[in-house]
Amino acid sequence: MLASFSPVDVLIEYGHAVVNLIAFVAFWRQAMPLISKHGLLPVTRTLRDMSRSSTGRRFSASASSSEVQPERRRVRWKQVRQYPTLCWWFYKDHHIHLMCAAGCIGGVLLLLLPCPHRLYGTTDISLFAAAVGVAWVRAGIWLLMGVVYLSLQNVSGPFLALQMDANLIEMNCLIALHSMLLATHVLSCTLLPIQSLLGGWPLMGRILTFVVDFRLSHHMRWLIFRVMLACGMCKWYGSPMWKSLTAMTAHYETQPLPNCVSWYVHMAPEWWHKVETAMSLVIEIMIPFLVYAPWYLSRLVAFVGFVQLTVMINTTGNYGHLGIMTIVQCLPILYADEWPLSLLTARVQLPSSRPSGPLAVPAWVAVVFGVLCAVVWVCLLAVVYVLWAVSTVPLLQSFKGRVRMPPSRLVDLYSYLRRYKVCNYYAKFGSMNAERLELIVQGQREGCREWLPYEFKFKPCNPFTAPRFAFFYIHRFDWRLWFLPLEWQRARSRRTQCDVPDWYEAFIHGLTLNDPTTLSLIHNNPFPDEAPAKIRTLVVKFSFTPPLTAAAAAADRDTETDTQERPTSPPTLSQQSTGEDDSMGVRRRAAAGAAVAAVSDGTRGFSQEEQVGEGRGGKSVWRFLRCCARGRRVRWWVTRPVGVYHYYDRGRPDHSNSSSNESSEGSSDSWLL
User: Fold this and answer.
1) What's the pTM value of the predicted model, to 2 decimals?
2) What is the residue extent of each domain of the chain?
3) Interior angle at CA 436, CA 430 and CA 440, nearest 5
């Protein structure tokens, strides 16, 4: 038959089933505090906003009278076309649980059900029918998982708005489409006498093979090509830090959720970071063209480059299932017989006879059913090639207007399909930040002047706590908090008011009530007995502590005789150079600074730049590692408050300040302890 067996398609399906299982399980754990009825962004509120945006009407869950049912259905389908989600009908909390459970069960079933590719060539009609049936079942599961994830994404607002989420939906739809395409292709080629039709025209058979043998691995190869090239182009035409080869110098420190490995890689020499930046541009701009090379060694270079870059990104930061999903998409690059031009010289493989057995059907039934399958197969094949053509639009958009765009009709079709996430724009790390700003949430009891900080699960907040490693788990709330201080900084530069999102105000309101659903999003609650009366959110500049300063602070702590439970942090030399002061007093700060300088092996008098440069040496990093191994409390971050993002007073809610550009009281980081 025309469609031959491709083992890489099986690896793609099983690997992506694991990715879906990870994604659904991770979001299921966070769905209730994020989008439930009492969550930060309830589904009903999101549906109400989408209803007003699409039809100008308010979303209502109550049933209407029979006279307006046709109008109600027309409005509802208009809403579904604009914002496709099953939550227009299933919006309650138990429906969200059912959707997440359906995604998890679907991932398990895809791992348990066999891939029917090897059974397509059998002459036993019972095995052949079972293979076709399993193929359609798997296609239905893939499509269901894509629809469910799309439904959850459209009602989750910013929490499921990452590019990896859109990539997951696109992969599910592509695998479902190719499963149906292969099943109908096999049926039509098996039931119809194509062998006699093409027997006299071998060249026509080869051309037809090249046209119709559109395997999943071919589409995955095109997907990884445009993803990598688009990411490279958005870097080249994006932040100037990429062209100046300084992007990786700040990446490990300013990425959304760093882990404990980020600190060590960040302390590498500056020349190494420039090499990393240059290699990233080469891998994402030049190497993608080797994906379609006819030589195995060239494709091996592309595979190793993509995997190396993916592993480096995901071991030095918490990016959830992005790494394993990218590696799965890279698998077709290695398969030696899968490059498309080889199909023109390949021998046409056709079955010698139709399957026979106890369930054999008459010839006229086979012809009729084969014609129907052929019609469906042609329609699916047309959809595949249309998606291929439409996907060129987001790829060319990554060139930022430097190339000519496709015809306007193709651009309009992409704009329509983009809402269904079957064709997406991919551009990662195009804009870089020179410094890291974090939100620190603090609470204060009634009648008490001490501010106690809340600690998040994966977001940096405590300078003496190492960034946590999340493996394949991605904490949606902590990830989204990374964007808020950046928006505050842009509003500050434009001298405008920064709008605080509704879901963040709901988070602060939940903290003032000690709401268990809200508290499940954070690591610890400093007010277990009584809810705080005031809560403020500070914008704080975070930077990795140089190894010399961190080791000196750890050694200084070992020599302290103070028996307090939480001793005061000695200031770093970088803070001494700024000349700033806090409520501790100048005398105590100077004494602590002298102790640090005495222990740090002659580092007194160095400026911040000199100390950071010296701190990137191997001896300093090794000294820092010894401090960690001995259990000393080392300092991972240098912090400095730069402003107030939000302020809430339960006793005077009308005087609560949503956002301010004024600096908080005290400029050192002693408030964080």
Assistant:
1) 0.83
2) 7-37+92-420, 436-560+568-672
3) 130
